[in-house]
Amino acid sequence: MHSDVIATEHAARLAAVDSLLPGSSPFEAAENAVVLEVATGGSAASGLASRVQVDRDAPNAPWRALTEHRLDVQLAGPEPAAVLDALLTRWDEHLRAVAEPGDTETAAIVPRASRDAAGAREMLHHGFAPLRVVAVRPAQRMVPAAPLGTPGVKIRRAEPGDLETAVALGMELHSYDAQYGTVNWRTGVEEILAKDLAEQLKRPEPPLWIAELYGRPLGMVSVQHPGETGWISGRVAASRVGYLSSLAVAEAARSSGVGTALATHAHQVLDEEGADVVLLHHAAANPLSTPFWYAQGYRPLWTYWQRRPAVR
Fold it and tell me: What is the pLDDT at residue 141?
């Protein structure tokens, strides 16, 4: 089956289950990326196997393995699960040639459309777990929200003097999320986080807000505005995409309405800027963030399946 046909059939199959998924183009080999193709039982699959490596002190290092092997997949034909199984087997052969067995700073990652259930069992059989989700919220979606006058809660734009508070909240969030494998607890994380937050706070209008509960700064939210989200906007069929970078609430303020007030404020900002959708990442296994975000109007769009180390 030709690569153009695979891409077209794959896009049509996904469009039938989720209208917010983007279209597909045939994969092309590039530097650090090869195209793998398999066929079985009248079905065919194409996979783009790529590798990304980051330095330990890079700004995005806390959120990923230092070496990520990624497989983007396109499936066509009547047996998508079976052909995915064959593609994963082919990719495993490739990984054994390029990845160090047992290296915990390597990860094998397969992004799958969340509503595409075909092949989930095969992913598990190959040692993958659904780790991280890209969730989507259409603009101005009507969801239950805290009233604007949540007792004791005041939201204000962050200032340079809030750096220490922002770092403390960010580190508390990072420590909690590290339990679920979506972030990494390494030496130097606090310095990386502090540098990123300091850069945000230097902007004339920092994209970060602080929530005070009876005068105490106990929560924060940060966003990326439409026009700043080119790195992820291709993952959704929308013209103007906002991104909710992080939302942190101190443990002492949980269940107080601070988190909902912050999320409502961020959505209002992005809705007023004309965002068609808002995206965010969350850990699939997190028992706090997963129900919280879906109560705010989000739903899964992409699920990132991960195996770490990449080769066992």
Answer: 60
